[in-house]
Amino acid sequence: MRGRKPVPTVIKxxxxxxxxxxxxxxxxxxxxxxxxxxxxxxxxxxxARAEWESxxxxxxxxxxxxxxxxxxxxxxCATFARWKQAETHLRKHGxxxxxxxxxxxxxxxxxxxxxxxxxxxxxxxxxxxLTPVSRTRVHVPTTTAPDVQRDRxxxxxxxxxx
Length: 162
Hints:
Elements: H1 9-14, H2 46-61, H3 70-93, E1 96-98, E2 105-107, H4 109-128, H5 132-136, H6 148-154
Antiparallel strand pairs: 1-2
C-alpha cells in the first residue's frame, strides 16, 4: 500500500478531526468490552506480563484497546520483553565478545536482537498512538463547569461535535 497509513477514526476524533474530512460511516467498531487478563502466551514471561499489566488498562481506558487490538498489544509486550532481555545481556556481557577459536573480537548478536526489537516496539507504539509526537496530536476535550448565570440569560452552550 502506498502513501500514508490511514489514521484510525478513534484517533481522528481524539485529535478533533483536524482535516475536517467526513469520518467513515461503515468502519467496523470492535467491542471494547474485553477481558484485560494477561494472555496465556505472555503469562510465563515476567517482563511481557508486567508490560501487559501496565499498558492494557491504560489503552482500554483511552478507548484504544478493543477485541481487535489484543493481538497487536500481545506482540508489543512480547517484543518489549525480548528487547529488555537483550539489553540486560548487553549490559552484563558488553557490546563486543570474544569468540572461541578466533582471535578477532565480534559484535554481540544481542545488539542486533535489541535493535530489531526496538524498531518493532516503536512501530507498534506508533500503531497505538503512544509516542511523544503522536500524543501531542491528540486533543482531549476539557470539561468546563456550567456557567449558571450565563445559561440563565443566553441558554446552555451548544455541544461541539468532533
